[in-house]
Specification:
The protein has one domain. It has eight helices and seven strands. The protein has a seven-stranded mixed beta sheet with strand order 1-7-6-2-5-3-4, with helices on both faces. Helix 2 packs across helix 3 and helix 5 runs parallel beside helix 6.
Length: 262
Amino acid sequence: MRSLLFAVAYWTLSIAYTLAAVIAALAPGRGATGWIIRRYVRRMVQAMRLLAGIRIQYRGEDRLPAGAFILAAKHQSWGDGFSVYDRFQDLAFVTGDHLEKFPLLSTVLTKLGAIVVNNCGGSKAREALKTRAADAHAQGRRILIYPEGNLARVGEKFRYRSGVWHMYRDFDMPVVPVATNLGLFWPGEAFRKHPGTATLEFLDPIPTGLAKDEFLARLEAAVEGKTAELVAEATGQPVTDAVRVLAPDEARRAAAMASSAS
């Protein structure tokens, strides 16, 4: 029942706020559209807590540096974007071009100054990332990117793409790794939700000036290592290899254990 109630709220809020954001996009500047989207995100986080029973606790916000920086986050759930966006006033974010297939969403993304790139990668995607991220950087905005470029199941890892390093190098901005275990409670795009307390943790910033291989290795170790710790903390199990791919039944058992432990 919780999952059904949340699904109704999810689509009702999404449709209503998207339409409102499209109307707000007629106003000059980004302010009106940004205000609408921030309210949408806040309502969605509330719906997660009140209807799906998923509470989010945040750690490490005292580690966030002053000024502009890049957030490089683990992506386990459709709820990840809501949980991160809710903590910042004016956050730019990198997203795939699949969302541009929906005309209304495309309008809103453009107005928000979202950094839309080709999901397939390649030179065109890198150029789009560089150009659009430069605009956000020039405005002094913080930027959210999911360096794997994919939704990962709990215990699963994809190759970390180099786009985050190009932004780190080109804009001379520190990168804040972000770990989470939200996938235990809202797995990927799944309909079924599991009540409990999820954790999102901001880790120590990676300073500027590192070479590509060193930077990517450090980022991956921080995100995957802490994510594995958060999953172990929620499930009461020992920390396992963060790159191991859990079978679907294992993931379901892990989510059930996290729910009962909360």
